[in-house]
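Technical annex, item 7. During the second reporting period the consortium partners agreed on a shared format for inverse folding records so that results from different sites could be compared directly. Each record opens with the tokenized structure and is followed by the designed sequence. A conforming record, contributed by the partner at site C, is shown below for reference.
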């Protein structure tokens, strides 16, 4: 099964309890958290099987703390 890596950004006002709940929500939808951030940015680096992708992306509408879910990749500045 193939998987994809995503960045999940959480609202900067989220408390640690809300971050923990968001992590649990991500894992309940099939995501595996690789890393988390709580300083300059709040969020997670997540790997998800492509079969679970739609369920995972549905969190953005149901979890009030997730502001962005986007594929991880290189960024180039011209």
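Designed sequence (site C submission):
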């Amino acid at each position: 099964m193939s998987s994809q890596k995503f960045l999940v950004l959480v609202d900067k006002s989220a408390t640690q309890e809300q971050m923990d709940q968001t992590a649990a929500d991500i894992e309940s939808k099939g995501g595996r958290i690789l890393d988390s951030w709580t300083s300059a940015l709040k969020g997670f680096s997540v790997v998800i099987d492509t079969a679970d992708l739609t369920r995972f992306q549905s969190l953005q509408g149901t979890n009030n703390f997730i502001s962005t879910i986007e594929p991880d990749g290189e960024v180039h500045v011209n």
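Residues 7 and 70 are 5 Å apart (CA to CA). Residues 3-71 form a domain with the Alpha-Beta Plaits fold (CATH 3.30.70.80). All partners now use this format for quarterly exchanges.
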